[in-house]
Amino acid sequence: MAMATCSWPSPPVQLRVMASKQPQPEQRRSANYQPNAWDYSSLLSLKGRGNDQNLTNPSVFNKLKASVRDLLINKPEPSAKLRLIDTMQRLGISYHFEEEISAILSSISQESAKAPFMDDVASMALKFRMLRGNGFDVSTELLSSLLDGKNSFRTVPHSDIDGLLSVYEASYLAFHGEDMFDELRKNSASALKDLLPSMDSHMRSNVAYSLEVPLHLRAPRLEARWFIDHYERCMASDDLIIQFAKQDFNNVQSMHTQELAALTSWWTDVALGEKLTFARDRLIECFHYANGVMWEPNLAKCREAITKAFALVVHLDDVYDVYGTLDELSLFTEAMGRWDVSASEALPEYMRAIYCTIINTSNEMADHVLREQGQSTQHLFHKGWHDLCKAFLVEAKWHYGNYRPTLSEYLNNGWMSSSGPLLLLHAFPFLNEKFSTKHLEWLERYPRIVQSSSKIFRLCNDSATHSDELQRGDAPSSIAIYMLENNADEQESRAAMHEYTIDIWKSVNEEAFCHHHYPKSFRKACLNLSRISHCIYQGGDGLGAPDDEKKKQIKELFLEPCIF
User: Fold this and answer.
1) Is there a smaller number of Cβ atoms within 10 Å at the N or the C end of the chain?
2) What residue stretches are annotated with the Terpene synthase metal-binding domain (predicted)?
3) Is 93 domain-assigned?
4) How far apart are CA 450 and CA 111, in angstroms?
């Protein structure tokens, strides 16, 4: 059954009179956000075109794929297989060989804890990372022998760069209670920083990148684009794998470009940027974020759902953070709870546009899910939007009341106001997995993996936006609150929040790699939401104020094919 949509009715006479008494736009707050950096007309012109000149004939591509599969299967040593699987995952081509990789890792996981990697620290750490990171049980004994009783390295030579880097990367897959990984992370990072000046340029760039953003925290598609270039410059690279990885990247990029063009068409038709001129217009950045959550070719509908929801969230966030009065925001939150056409009549005119667009967009998604899955998700989407608005309203009341929440209060509300739960609720029905009403009821309770990944989203956002928000006089972020509560300077606060973020990652790891009663694809979506949050906000606000580096990433992902 088609669901009712929301139109934009003309306001009653009395509301028009009330609107005339509202503060004029120039009296409202302004965040002075930079304008949209992308030419929508150029993006629309890509629709139906693609980059066919960079695509390989399917028969040629399949031959390449078969050769890469043979290369994987015929590797004689388990350590060599692990290194190749790691390379394939980083290049973004492992999805072609999931059955073969699962069989290999299953076989390796059944070996004794240390054999046959006893004398090779790099391989021991890689084995741990690959098994745990792919959902296999693996004993921490594999790495516990590396530390002595004083938490210093026992068996890792200070000059073993490969071993130190492998241990460092493995340490980020820790669970709660595995405190030795904190020491392994700190010790290996310290040793690698000391060794940086002595490394060759290729190794130095690899290590420096890992110290900035560890591999486990990187968004897979961004990693693929970076690693293709890095691996090609490696002396030990395989030309066959490079050729296949480049071609596959271009094939997938062509699909993503078409999706982006279609979403641009939707966004220009919605025209919220023209109706809410005070808000950030960030469709392309939202698609980038959605691509970070789920990039695989068969999940276009999932990316579409996340992109649309996130683009609307960005505008709604600016309504609550910047433009709306407290009375207006209370009205909007109440109207979102009602979720019907008549509720829009009580709203100021500028709010009707986004209110109706939210309802229409989510109802269209729910209608699609109902046709495809036979399950109603309208209540799920409605709950997500209402809960987000309530969290936004709490922060608005803090701002208008000049209230300083405790860090606990802030984060208990902040994981919801990050919008992570809303995005994940919209992603779930489009993950190409059958689900039941029990799954939906489970999601409505916001399970731990949703809360933890969303809390990482919040903390990454705070790290990038703290300074600008402080200048605007916004409600304090986690950085500012920690400074006040602990009489700390900003550097100390950032360091403390970084360690807290790493601690939350342990919860995400536990939920993603241990609790297999969750749908695998959803665990992966939550994991990747945490990762893209790090990447979007690394070195600056990649959503609110994307710099040249962030724009370069988007171009390389969606507009500029790999060159052969």
Assistant:
1) N
2) 269-506
3) yes
4) 34
